[in-house]
Amino acid sequence: MFQIMPGSNAKFPLPIAKDPDVGSNSLKDYKLSSNYVSAELVLNKALDREKQATVKLVLTGVDGGKPPKSGALNIIIKVMDINDNNPVFIQPLYKVKLKENVSAGTKVLSVFASDLDEGINSEIVYSFVDHGKKQNLFTIIPETGEIVVKGHIDFEENAAIELRVRARDRGNSPKILIEVVDENDNAPEIVMTPLLEIVKEDTKPGTAVALVTVSDKDGGKNGIVHCALKGLFPFKLETSYNNHYSLVVDGPLDRESVSLYNITITAADEGTPPLSSSTLITVHISDVNDNAPHFPAPVINAFLRENGQAGGLVTRVSADDSDTGENAALSYSLLDSSSSSVPITTLININSLSGEIFSLQSFNHEEMKRFQFQVMATDSGVPPLRSNATVNVFILDENDNSPVILPSYSEPGSFNSENIPYSAEAGYFVAKIRAVDADSGYNALLSYHLTEPKGTNLFRIGSSTGEIRTKRRMSDNDLKTHPLLITVSDNGEPSLSATMSMDVVVVESLDDIKTSFREVPVKEESFSDLNLYLLIAIVSVSVIFLLSLVGLIAAKCYRTDGSFSRYSAPVISTHPDGSWSFSKSTQQYDVCFSSDTIKSDVVVFPSTFPLPDAELISINEGDTFNRTQSLPSTTKVR
């Protein structure tokens, strides 16, 4: 038996065959089965242990006799192994599916390579062919060829992974393809691209505000995304193309109602379970000049005391504008009233920025009780918008006029004297003092007071009527001539007054009482149109007075409770000496009458103008009326 190392031209000695015959019958030739060797066994070609580990030969020796004789020798050759074979993997390509996000240490697959060599020559160590960053994802066990997960498997980063494994003795490298199965582990991503930073409130529907792009790293249904708005807004999403949208205006915008919108856009995929994400976009609405200035009220009432200094503040007007910025910057100006005979700019002035209105002169309530004008507010928008408000300025009365005693007791150079009989009873009418006050309201409410000689108590005067009457019968101890001092005071603060004196002469009988007429010096003057108008007015007023008097008497007849009466007739003030006055408009009044109404002075206040401090005021030391509030004007009836 021979052990032959693989290789060619190797020589091996063989045993010698012996033949006892001689001559031609002796050993002539050697024959080797398969003809690999001659008598000297020579290796003609390389042996391959992996193909044939043992070679069996038969050596036959043949003699030259006839018939020839032969002998045989069995030769067994064992071929020794050398490392002449590379490891061979059982398959050139491995494919496997692996879910993403699997934990480290998860077995992926095992590769196997075989080596036709034997012994130490067949031992294989597995390793990866250098594959860069993928080396961090997997590891291979060198002895077994088992591949396990080492790092984080993410479908979105590597949907398919190719690995190559090799044996240590430079064998061929099989290709390993790992297909990663997607899991719905990525929420959609939203990218917002604003087109308009600020949207005007008059923007037309359909105007694009922003572009919206959505994407999802997952695959299949996990990567199909739907986008929508969350909430109700005057905006909508319009699809441009795959996963691209436009945020457009879908309704009217009003900055005064909503100045900004916080719009939430939500994107959701079709995975199981579905994942979603949202983003917030803030849309600012800018102002346009679509609101005119607005006054709190269409009519503004202001009150100004008379006799004030020029330049004093009358009132301040203010309008608001729902717009903002320049569109809400207001300026004020004056507009003349069409019914005013005096230019308003001669009476007042206005600060165009603040709306403060100042007087340009001092006002007199007795000359002007009220005037009216308009204020216009204009904004600074383009085009500008404006609105108007009417301002009524009431001139409040001040107690700046003293009472004036009317003729005949106030005639210049006259001596006031009245005669009464000695037999006069208590309450005998002596005289009636009349006075007027140019002021209004309580400043014109007059009261009469009487001063008699000390030690006497013969006369009294009605505090509101001015009637002088006797308080008792005459006595022999009374004086024949009684000088009286009458004071007329108004109700203002401080009170102003006027005084007059009168002598009351006591006579024996009525026959001795002679009526004396006071002569009033008359100046010669031409009869002018003014005198004619005055005469006509006096006659007209006298007629109206008579009619009013009849009405008052009728009202008194129908009065059953002796309290207040109401009427709505023109109120006339007249006097026996021809002086007169009447109200400018018909109003409803609260009137208080004394028992001798026809002879009494009545102060009348409009019932539609309530007065502040309600109280009862005494008239003629017994009659009362309800005081409610001071008025801009007062009418006196006599």
TrEMBL record:
Membrane topology (UniProt): Single-pass type I membrane protein
SMART domains: CA (SM00112)
UniProt domain Cadherin: residue ranges: 7-89, 90-190, 199-295, 296-405, 420-517
Keyword Cell division part of the UniProt annotation: no
GO MF terms held by the record: calcium ion binding
Regions annotated as coiled coil: none
Subcellular location: Cell membrane
GO biological process: anatomical structure morphogenesis; homophilic cell adhesion via plasma membrane adhesion molecules
Residue ranges crossing the lipid bilayer per the database entry: 532-555
Principal localisation: membrane
Protein name in the entry: Protocadherin 1 alpha 6
Organism of origin: Sinocyclocheilus anshuiensis
